[in-house]
């Protein structure tokens, strides 16, 4: 057993060393990696109300990757709409902020996928709706800046309209918090947000919300790296592979009750890493 553990540790060290060597010269020279982040998406990233410190799953993941690569992190807070432009213009090296790997974003970035995600309907705990189909013809709020409005419409076409039921009315919200506020006020009948965030929300407000049905989409969240920055991409992918191998990744997900959202190995743009 001792010999096996030693071999595994040596393998992880080799991966980490190779990953660090892949880093662009400017990052190796500065010893820093700048990350664009939108800090209003718990439990992925948010400000601790008590301390004002940036915390969350993505923060823990970044810390683990930085330890493997031997770099320090510089967090750059940004509006969600500015996350991708920040790496296009060079203001940040990467985006690590609960951002979904979508084909429409592949023109400007490669994604190292690290977490399963997808939209999920939920309602107030006292709601009379208990099945996703009960929301046909009803108002459902979701963040306008995400892909969820489109996924709700697709789901509605297939599961409501195609079966002779009225379509869901999608109500754009400024954020997931705004969608919940509209639901509490009775202005909408339900909401959709990433199912990786629902355990946190339900724990924060016990007995307030209730998931309905199954996720309406299966996607991945990824670390966005500027297109053409293959060295940086491969370094991060190698470091991610190393923290999967040594168990750090599993511990981070367990901390946030998201073990079921784990990926078994790194993927690039939704495809397994060679």
Structure description:
This protein is an alpha/beta fold. The chain has helices spanning 2-21, 25-30, 57-69, 83-88, 148-159, 176-184, 198-204, 230-245, 248-255; strands at residues 32-37, 40-41, 45-47, 54-55, 72-77, 94-95, 109-117, 119-124, 139-143, 169-173, 190-194, 209-212, 219-226, 267-268, 271-272. The model is unreliable at 1-17 (pLDDT under 50).
- Total domains, how many? 2
Mean pLDDT over the full residue set: 91
Order of strands, main sheet, comes to 10-9-11-8-12
Order of helices and strands: HHEEEEHEHEEEEHEHEHEEHHEE
CATH class of the largest domain: Alpha Beta
List segments where confidence is low: pLDDT < 50 over at least 5 consecutive residues: 1-17
Evaluate the radius of gyration.
Answer: 20 Å
User: In one word, what is the shape?
Assistant: elongated
Q: How much of the polypeptide forms β-strand, as a percent range?
A: 15-25%
Second-tier CATH architecture of the largest domain: 3-Layer(aba) Sandwich
* CATH superfamily descriptor of the largest domain: Periplasmic binding protein-like II
In short:
It is built from nine helices and 15 strands.
Notable features of this structure?
9 helices; 274 residues; alpha/beta; 2 domains; 15 strands; D-Maltodextrin-Binding Protein, domain 2; disordered N terminus; five-stranded mixed sheet; four-stranded antiparallel sheet
Lay out the secondary structure.
Layout: H1 2-21, H2 25-30, E1 32-37, E2 40-41, E3 45-47, E4 54-55, H3 57-69, E5 72-77, H4 83-88, E6 94-95, E7 109-117, E8 119-124, E9 139-143, H5 148-159, E10 169-173, H6 176-184, E11 190-194, H7 198-204, E12 209-212, E13 219-226, H8 230-245, H9 248-255, E14 267-268, E15 271-272
Parallel strand pairs: 1-5, 1-6, 9-10, 9-11
Antiparallel strand pairs: 2-3, 3-4, 7-13, 7-14, 8-11, 8-12, 14-15
Helix pairs in contact: 1-8, 3-8, 3-9
């Amino acid at each position: 057993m001792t010999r096996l553990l030693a071999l595994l540790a040596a393998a992880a060290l080799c991966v980490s060393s190779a990953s660090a060597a892949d880093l662009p010269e400017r990052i190796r020279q500065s010893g820093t990696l700048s990350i664009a982040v939108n800090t209003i998406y718990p439990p992925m990233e948010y400000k601790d109300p008590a301390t004002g410190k940036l915390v969350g799953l993505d923060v823990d993941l970044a810390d683990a990757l930085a330890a493997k690569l031997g770099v320090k992190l510089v967090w750059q807070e940004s509006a969600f709409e500015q996350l991708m432009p920040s790496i296009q213009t060079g203001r940040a090296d990467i985006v690590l902020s609960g951002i979904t790997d979508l084909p429409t974003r592949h023109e400007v970035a490669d994604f190292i996928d690290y977490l399963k995600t997808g939209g999920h309907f939920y309602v107030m705990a006292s709601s009379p709706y208990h099945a996703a189909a009960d929301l046909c013809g009803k108002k459902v709020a979701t963040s306008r800046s995400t892909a969820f409005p489109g996924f709700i419409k697709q789901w509605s076409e297939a599961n409501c309209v195609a079966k002779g039921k009225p379509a869901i009315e999608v109500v754009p919200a400024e954020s997931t918090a705004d969608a919940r506020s509209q639901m509490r006020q009775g202005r909408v009948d339900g909401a959709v947000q990433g199912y990786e965030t629902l355990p946190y929300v339900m724990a924060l407000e016990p007995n307030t919300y209730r998931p309905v049905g199954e996720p309406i989409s299966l996607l991945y969240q990824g670390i966005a790296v500027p297109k053409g920055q293959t060295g940086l991409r491969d370094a991060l992918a190698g470091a991610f592979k190393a923290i999967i191998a040594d168990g750090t990744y599993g511990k981070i997900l367990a901390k946030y009750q998201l073990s079921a959202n784990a990926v078994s190995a790194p993927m690039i743009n939704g495809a397994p890493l060679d």
